[in-house]
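Quick one, T. Sequence first:
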Amino acid sequence: MSILFFCIWIVLNGRVTVEIICFGLIISAALFGFAVRFLGWSPDRERLLFQIAPLLALYLCNLLRETVIAAWNVLLVALNPKSHPEPLLIEFHSGLTRNYQNVLLANSITLTPGTITVFQDHDYFVVHALRREYADGLENSSFIRLLKKFP
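Structure tokens:
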């Protein structure tokens, strides 16, 4: 966190001098101390963030890939006069135990074109899909497989 504060300090100043670096180090340390004391931040959280950073990057790459594929499929449906949407609602349980995992899954489904999370309660989901093939495999999607690896 203090490294992030220091980087923001350098970017906002626009130039790097000895004076700016010294003040930046002092101000970054003070902000980090404030965050630990009054905002409930802990160095353990930072260690956890560094541990899951590669997994989070992999998840974001997967989300981008799935979004591009789904956008292309929805575009083909929209531009083809012979192709008709067949909307449906699908209900499933994700099997994810933590609330943040289920919320992240719900948002990922909604971000993917052609699907919208209508309802989510713990690991129970109701998803609206534009076509049946968009809903197939939601119960064991790549999103869920990656989210199960999160601590």
